[in-house]
């Protein structure tokens, strides 16, 4: 599909029949440098990129790493023992270290998969089959003990201050590969835990903010780009109306001069008109074969919703969108994976996402897209290896957890870093969320130290004054 | 990891450290060998990347700490000396290696053996053969900093060097002088159609109607223009337009992103701002009220209300109430306020100085904490797991106060009578009741079998046993509790359920009794005081058999609010082979009481329904403990340095040096200092803002940054003239604006000019008027005005009643855009698309983008289509032919008559006047929508 996408110059040529004579002359006589600046035009990366885009599968709420990808046999052996731990929440609230906690073994059996022999629990049997594609980061740690701060930190690199989200930074740094589509799309984002800030542009120009398609909990079928279609007018009639607009606008250009600003306005309508005919196809999942749909689990009620979101992510990445976030969650203020009690409920969430994720990995690989697409699975934090309040669930754990990456430029079948023997605190090759941000930007060809924006008298970046690129992950 | 530095300044002071002759004492070969073998390799491998001259060269030096020379180690970085030779326990380096307070190296802790080597090395006196000198960080030179244009004193009412041509004002003359020097001329004045539209939108934000346009265009009087200006300045819509500009600067919003909490009282501040602009009150006073209105004297009730509502300004920050590190959150709130105050009033970026001396501007960290101390004495949030902003009772008229007092008295008296009748049936004043004092079988909450996480509490004292538990109001459907008694004998028992009541409790807790009679579920309202003893509610009498089922089960499924479990009591009523047990609770009631009680309760309810409402406003309070604050090293709240006495920016030298009181925060002094007539920043900043909002670009285009990284003024003397005028005219915004719109320059055409475009394409010298885009609000208001739906009433709360959070709010209003709720998670689509100011940050200058979402919005958005429909109805309702209709609708939208080609193309589009009405409506709506999307509608020429 990417060949079918017109360059900007082609597009203007093709649309020129609709331009007034004056505008046409103006455009054709213009040198490239004097063209109205399109803020989303593709930009040269700082470094040779290893990947072109990211699909972020956000497991909102924090799935338990010790029940999924971080196998800790000690937990099984010492299940039920009470031991002192430096619990992040207790420390934040009281400064008290070494609170007594009840160890809790994983509720799912771990097995080894693939040639790499990675341990994955029975929560994710489908994803496990792709474990040789995964690059597991076992030593993640982050900031924020509660969902709000940690979720904002994950997306924007700050627990409290209003900062641009990662997708907005990438959009700003690289522009969009496809003029008919936004460069940053968030599919069914949740309104909770920072809501729109998690795909916002903060002080970056609003043009770089994420485009939300649908909302959490709503049916994926409603996940659309706003105002993309005129609900009233058939295409032919709207064309007549559009021609009237063209003639009015061209007549309103000041005579005898080139006016880049107003040409940008006229241009925005031309682009909108083409987007209107092009984008709905990208979002139309019915164009996929039944086999592909089944691969994502769309044919089964439990996996249909998340499957559609993943398939849409693939279609968008194919069409050149740089950063696509898929959020697993519902519309409630409580994030789905947040099992403070009733840990067995993890199984329900896993069932809904496992098959679609495996389908996405497989589909991307079959189409050769995995080579330059990074799939990023993770959450704002993990969970404690001990029971919360000695009950049936686990509390938040920002001090050690696992995320995995796959695809573009990353070592497959690789595991990086470690938590302690219980899976509580990252101890070996610690990787802070800032480091993950820096590393992901690096893969896209962006030097996180150089991607800056001057605001309020100083230069800001996604990683603040932190962030180390972990080169060891690169293939 | 807590309290990390959160500021970034990339231009780190990369200072070379020249090799020098700083030779140390002679070292033994053994010491040298130890250092070379055990210490140096570790430093090189794990520390130099961030703590060496090489790191400094690539701007990666951290903490101002050099570890690649001996002096650097001894001198240390921002947190002090890295080592104290001979004293390992006082050496910060060793603490860091041990991950004690600091954690170094950050990636992972070094092996214990390596750390032991370092300990030994320090005990030996830290012998270090390396040379080199620690670089010193340059100190800020505040005196030199005062030379920057913005910090220099205002020039007293500057006058142009040469008089201007006839008809030009002082402002024009300043501008013409620069143009002349650049050999440029101003273009001609704009025509009257352009002028009338410009004035309406600029001064009141609304389009002129066709009739208003004609009146002005046909008014030949030389006073016509001035008359129109004065009329618009006097319009109540003036304050709506100009107040909204100010709301951009103060990051006004009516909700908080986190959890979508609504600010139900924020609208009062919005209305206060509008009134301030309408009444043309002093901007200097306006500044002081926002910073410290609660501390200012008031001579009338109205003034008192004004003063306190103004302080909502301080409380509007988009803070993360959930942050668990409350010490950090408190300083983050202070930082947000400081950032807002300094950018809004002073156009200074002092946030940099939270972590280190400002790298560009003469603002040392000490100044930051001197100001922070003032705000740290101010309470903005009440801290809890989820902290909460502060709402206070609004001062009201004495009559109203008396009314409220009378009402409260009547309620109290009724409540007292009810209480007397109920005996002790009120949990107030109850103390915990030991289980042993209760009769029958008691199952305390600790003995209950639970699923899910229940939190123990002793907050409300009327509990049974050692405490009670609650579900935190979370994970509904995931928590249960089962109370299983040991039934001694078969028989009938009265089952009583104990809970501690409260306003946040669940009104609908399902409690199921499983007995020999089967299952019976009772729904309990835990907001109400339990009727028995203030502790228990009866679940009825049930038969229990020793071998049979006996359980009381509670679930939080389907509940709202907090669910409480405390204890369950099983009181034998009729038990085989035994006499009924006399119960200790409750006291026996006399039969006459219930009826009377019910009457009183009815009266109470009726009275409470007629309660005279106590209005509230959003604000801050003075902290109880007033103090200076200490410098936070690298911004870390857990790493405190020297005390920074309260004060202001040293670079601004004023003859105002108040002593700070030990029982007031210092905000009053801060407000005075900002609004001081000799403060060179405030008047310049405000005058420049007015210029920016009127002309589309400030004399200093970086309206929020007058520091050295901002732009310099294009016309410094003009800026000083305007600032001085502002002060001279008692900070009157209307007087200054009037002067500006009456200039010839404001009246210029925005037409292109060959010479001007070539030598001054950005129009910095004002050779023409800037063409400006209608902002989101003007666009919305104009469409509503054309559709005939616009409501022009002023003020009032706007969030739809019954709204509990700001998620997916449905915006639907015919009020002006100013009154559409500014909800941080749900901005109106039009706002989002058309560059509305981000309501979480100071925005003096909005973006000005031309994007496809804007085009899509105008082409397809249902709201736009709807406004076009309404307008079409109006147009077709006119008793005119289509030609005349086009004339009118083009005037209404574009503010001018249609060009001949516009007229013809629109007539051709609408087709025959004989089409059926439905078709006609459709066609006309489409034409009007095209006008909405056209350049001349969206721009002010």
Give an overview in words.
The complex is a heterodimer of chains A (475) and B (941). With 475 residues, chain A is α/β, with parallel strands linked by helices. Chain A has one domain (2-74, 110-473): Alkaline Phosphatase, subunit A (3-Layer(aba) Sandwich). Chain A has 13 helices and 19 strands. In chain A, β11 (382-387) and β12 form a beta hairpin. In chain A, α11 (301-318) runs parallel beside α12. Chain A starts with 7 loop residues before the first helix and ends in a 15-residue tail after the last strand. In chain A, 60% of the residues are buried. With 941 residues, chain B is α+β, with helices and mostly antiparallel strands. Among the domains of chain B are: 29-123, no CATH class; 435-586, Jelly Rolls, CATH 2.60.120; 859-940. Chain B has a five-stranded antiparallel sheet, with no helix packed on it. In chain B, strands 4-15-9-12 form a four-stranded antiparallel sheet, with no helix packed on it. In chain B, strands 2-3-16 form a three-stranded antiparallel sheet. The radius of gyration of chain B is 36 Å and the shape is globular. The model of chain B is unreliable at 1-23 and 580-591 (pLDDT under 50). The interface between A and B is large, with 103 and 104 residues.
């Amino acid at each position: 599909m990417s060949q079918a996408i017109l360059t900007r110059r082609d597009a203007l040529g093709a649309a020129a029949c609709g331009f007034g004579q004056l505008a046409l002359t103006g455009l054709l006589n213009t040198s490239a440098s004097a063209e109205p600046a399109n803020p989303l035009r593709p930009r040269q990366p700082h470094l040779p990129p290893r990947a072109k885009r990211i699909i972020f599968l956000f497991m909102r709420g924090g799935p338990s790493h010790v029940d999924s990808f971080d196998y800790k046999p000690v937990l099984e052996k010492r299940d039920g023992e009470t031991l002192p731990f430096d619990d992040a929440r207790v420390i934040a609230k009281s400064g008290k270290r070494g609170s007594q906690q009840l160890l809790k073994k994983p509720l799912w059996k771990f097995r080894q998969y693939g040639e790499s022999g990675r341990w994955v629990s029975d929560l994710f049997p489908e994803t496990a089959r792709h474990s040789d594609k995964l690059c597991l980061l076992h030593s993640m740690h982050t900031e924020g003990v509660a969902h709000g701060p940690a979720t904002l930190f994950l997306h924007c690199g700050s627990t409290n201050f209003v900062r641009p989200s990662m997708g907005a930074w990438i959009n700003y740094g690289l522009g969009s590969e496809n003029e008919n589509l936004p460069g940053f799309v968030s599919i069914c984002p949740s309104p909770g835990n920072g809501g729109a800030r998690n795909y916002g542009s903060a002080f970056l120009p609003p043009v770089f903010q994420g485009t939300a398609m649908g909302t959490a909990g709503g049916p994926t079928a409603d996940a659309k780009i706003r105002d993309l279609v005129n609900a009233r007018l058939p295409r032919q009639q709207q064309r007549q109306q559009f021609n009237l607009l063209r003639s009015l606008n061209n007549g309103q250009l000041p005579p005898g001069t080139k006016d880049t600003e107003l040409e940008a306005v006229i241009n925005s309508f031309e682009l909108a008109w083409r987007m209107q005919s092009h984008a709905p196809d990208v979002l139309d999942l019915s164009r996929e074969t039944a086999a592909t749909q089944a691969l994502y689990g769309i044919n089964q009620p439990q996996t249909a919703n998340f499957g559609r979101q993943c398939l849409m992510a693939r279609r968008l990445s194919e069409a050149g969108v740089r950063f696509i976030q898929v959020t697993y969650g519902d519309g409630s203020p409580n994030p789905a994976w947040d099992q403070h009690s009733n840990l067995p409920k993890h199984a329900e969430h896993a069932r809904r996402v496992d098959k679609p994720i495996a389908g996405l990995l497989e589909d991307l690989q079959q189409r050769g897209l995995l080579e330059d697409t990074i799939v990023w699975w993770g959450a704002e934090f993990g969970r404690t290896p001990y029971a919360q309040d000695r009950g049936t669930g686990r509390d938040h754990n920002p001090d050690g957890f696992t995320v995995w990456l796959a695809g573009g430029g990353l070592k497959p079948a690789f595991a990086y870093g470690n938590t302690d023997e219980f899976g509580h605190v990252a101890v070996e090759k610690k990787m802070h969320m800032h480091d993950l941000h820096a590393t992901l930007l690096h893969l896209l060809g962006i030097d996180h130290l150089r991607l800056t924006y001057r605001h309020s008298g100083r230069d800001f970046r996604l990683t603040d004054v932190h962030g180390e690129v972990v080169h060891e992950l690169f293939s | 990891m807590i309290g990390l530095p959160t500021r970034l300044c990339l231009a780190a002071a990369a200072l070379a450290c020249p090799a020098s002759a700083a030779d140390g004492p002679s070292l033994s070969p053994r010491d040298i060998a130890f250092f070379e073998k055990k210490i140096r390799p570790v430093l090189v491998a794990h520390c130099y990347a961030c703590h060496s001259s090489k790191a400094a060269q690539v701007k990666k030096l951290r903490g101002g700490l050099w570890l690649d020379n001996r002096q650097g180690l001894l001198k240390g970085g921002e947190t002090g000396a890295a080592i104290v030779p001979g004293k390992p326990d006082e050496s910060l380096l060793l603490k860091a290696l041990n991950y004690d307070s600091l954690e170094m190296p950050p990636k992972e802790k070094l092996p214990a053996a390596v750390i032991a080597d370092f300990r030994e090395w320090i005990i030996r006196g830290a012998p270090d053969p390396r040379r080199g000198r620690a670089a010193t960080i340059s100190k800020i030179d505040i005196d030199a900093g005062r030379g920057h244009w913005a910090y220099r004193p205002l020039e007293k009412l500057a006058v142009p060097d040469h008089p201007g041509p006839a008809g030009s004002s002082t402002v024009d003359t300043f501008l013409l002088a620069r143009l002349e020097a650049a050999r440029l001329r101003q273009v001609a004045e704009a025509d009257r159609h352009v002028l009338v539209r410009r004035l309406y939108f600029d001064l009141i934000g609304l389009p002129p109607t066709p009739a208003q346009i004609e009146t002005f265009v046909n008014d030949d009087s030389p006073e016509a223009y001035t008359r129109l200006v004065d009329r618009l300045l006097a319009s109540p819509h003036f304050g709506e337009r100009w107040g909204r500009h100010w709301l951009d600067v103060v990051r006004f919003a009516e909700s908080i992103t986190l959890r979508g909490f609504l600010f139900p009282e924020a609208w009062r501040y919005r209305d206060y701002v509008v009134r301030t602009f309408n009444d043309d009150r002093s901007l200097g006073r306006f500044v002081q009220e926002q910073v410290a209105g609660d501390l200012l004297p008031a001579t009338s009730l109205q003034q008192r209300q004004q003063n306190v509502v103004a302080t909502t300004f301080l409380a509007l920050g988009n803070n993360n109430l959930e942050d668990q590190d409350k010490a950090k959150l408190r300083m983050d709130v202070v930082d947000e306020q400081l950032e807002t105050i300094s950018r809004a009033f002073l156009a200074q970026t002092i946030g940099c100085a939270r972590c280190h001396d400002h790298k560009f501007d003469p603002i040392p960290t000490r100044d930051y904490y001197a100001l922070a101390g003032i705000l740290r004495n101010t309470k903005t949030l009440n801290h809890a797991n989820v902290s909460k902003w502060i709402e206070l009772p609004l001062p009201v008229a004495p009559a109203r106060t008396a009314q409220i007092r009378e009402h409260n008295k009547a309620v109290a008296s009724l409540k007292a009578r009810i209480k007397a009748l109920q005996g002790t049936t009120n949990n107030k004043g109850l103390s915990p009741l030991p289980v042993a004092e209760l009769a029958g079988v008691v199952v305390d909450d600790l003995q209950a079998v639970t699923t899910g996480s229940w939190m123990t509490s002793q907050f409300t004292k009327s509990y049974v046993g050692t405490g009670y538990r609650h579900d935190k109001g979370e994970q509904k459907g995931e928590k249960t509790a089962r109370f299983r008694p040991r039934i001694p004998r078969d028989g009938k028992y009265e089952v009583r359920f104990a809970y501690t009541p409260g306003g946040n409790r669940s009104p609908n807790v399902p409690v199921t009794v499983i007995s020999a009679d089967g299952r019976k579920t009772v729904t309990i309202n835990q907001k109400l005081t339990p009727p028995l003893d203030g502790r228990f509610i009866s679940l009825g009498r049930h038969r229990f058999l020793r071998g049979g089922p006996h359980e009381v089960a509670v679930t939080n499924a389907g509940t709202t609010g907090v669910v409480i479990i405390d204890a369950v009591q099983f009181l034998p009523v009729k038990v085989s082979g035994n006499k009924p047990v006399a119960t200790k609770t409750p006291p026996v009631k006399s039969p006459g009481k219930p009826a009377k009680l019910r009457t009183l309760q009815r009266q109470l309810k009726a009275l409470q329904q007629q309660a005279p409402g106590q209005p509230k406003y959003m604000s801050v309070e003075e902290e109880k403990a007033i103090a200076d604050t200490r410098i936070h090293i690298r911004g870390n709240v857990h790493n405190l340095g020297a005390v920074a006495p309260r004060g202001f920016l040293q670079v601004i030298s004023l003859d105002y040096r108040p002593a700070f009181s030990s029982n007031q925060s210092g905000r009053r002094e801060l407000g005075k200092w900002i609004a001081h007539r000799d403060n060179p920043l405030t008047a310049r900043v405000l005058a420049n803002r007015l210029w920016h909002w009127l002309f589309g670009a400030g004399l200093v285009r970086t309206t929020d940054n007058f520091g050295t990284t901002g732009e310099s003024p294009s016309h410094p003397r003009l800026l000083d003239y305007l600032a001085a005028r502002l002060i001279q005219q008692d900070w009157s915004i209307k007087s200054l604006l009037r002067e500006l719109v009456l200039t010839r320059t404001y009246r210029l055409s925005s037409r292109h000019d060959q010479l001007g475009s070539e030598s001054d394409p950005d129009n910095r010298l004002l050779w023409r008027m800037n063409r400006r885009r209608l902002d989101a609000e003007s666009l919305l208001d104009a469409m509503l005005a054309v559709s005939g739906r616009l409501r022009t009433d002023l003020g009032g709360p706007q969030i739809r009643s019954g709204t509990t959070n700001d998620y997916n709010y449905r915006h639907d209003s015919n009020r002006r855009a100013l009154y559409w709720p500014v909800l941080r998670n749900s901005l109106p689509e039009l706002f989002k698309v058309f560059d509305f100011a981000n309501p979480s940050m100071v925005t003096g200058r909005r973006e000005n983008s031309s994007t496809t979402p804007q085009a899509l919005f105008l082409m397809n958005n249902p709201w736009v289509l709807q406004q076009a429909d309404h307008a079409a109805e109006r147009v077709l309702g006119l008793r005119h032919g289509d030609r005349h209709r086009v004339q009118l609708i083009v005037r209404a939208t574009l503010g001018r008559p249609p060009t001949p080609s516009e007229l013809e193309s629109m007539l051709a589009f609408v087709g025959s006047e004989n089409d059926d009405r439905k078709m006609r409506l459709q066609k006309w709506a489409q034409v009007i929508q095209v006008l909405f999307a056209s350049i001349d509608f969206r721009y002010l020429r």
